[in-house]
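Ticket #338: bound-state structure for N-hydroxy-L-asparagine.
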Amino acid sequence: MKRRKFIRSTAAGAVGATFAVSAMACVDENKKKDILPEEKKPMSKNKPNLPIAICTWQFTAANQTAGDALERGKPALDAAIEGVSVEEQNLKNTTVGKGGAPDREGNVTLDACVMAPDGDCGAVMAVSNTSHVAALSRKVMEDTPHVILVGEGAEEFATLSGFETEDLLTEASEKAWQEWLKSPEYKPIINIENHDTIGMLTMDKEGDIAGVCTTSGLSYKMKGRVGDSPIIGSGLFLDNEIGGAVATGMGEEVIKTVGSFLIVELMRNGMSPQDACEEAIRRIVSKNTKYKDFQIAYIAINKAGETGAYCIHEGFTMMQYKNKKNESVLVDFYHKPA
Ligand code: SD4
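RESOLUTION: The complex was predicted; output attached.
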């Protein structure tokens, strides 16, 4: 299959027209420019031009925030947590943090995990009293003997750690949920609202890699449901010697193939980030005949600073901060109906 990656520059913070329109614009623009996909270039022997930040979807401001923090010399994990917190606090984002869509019973519950360059990691699941679940995951990693805290235990730990108690259900999310209850059908929509779970990978000026994944999970999920995002190896994995990967989309399918771990291991065995993301998507579609009904996307970076991304369906974008430019990358996809 021919692989293409479409890059267009965006002014930081400017997320203009609807995704569909901007996607088409990217394709046309690319035809003119014929940008050479990164994976077609020979693996760079030079030191990568640092720092670098990549994240899922069109989270322009979050990625710029991480890029700026890295430029100021912040370590990779600090910058990634600072970056994703932009979306954790964005009330208009119904898939991350405060304002996230609730479960079927009206509870907003958040999942997150972080991974540091030294391989240490932390995660929280089903947290309903703070939007800053990425920072909370880091606290679990640094201040407890554990890797994961869930539900009430995680919420008590948040309070003890000084996190402000917040009501995560906004008026708008409650209204949307009330509407959904009128004909409650659980059918996650592909590429919901042009934005989704935020997964971010950062490479700081020292060349160290860190990653974060934070989400409110799938809208109107069953009470207690947890997806891939806070599961180390599924929603996020990295090895500072090799690279890192994060996932977004239908978490159940990512978990079944331990997607992010798989991508890092494929890179360890010599694949480029792009080829590794494509292979991880192929694993899913080859085992699941229903892949036309759900979206999954991966993004990845290797130690040389090369990046890759791939998804099942058209419509996924990645943000990339590199060479001091924050760009939107329209990602190639598997399912191309004739
Ligand atoms: C989950 N992977 O909870 C998350 C949700 C997501 O696009 O990324 N949706 O399954």
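RESOLUTION NOTES: The CA atoms of residues 284 and 290 lie 10 Å apart.
TICKET STATUS: resolved
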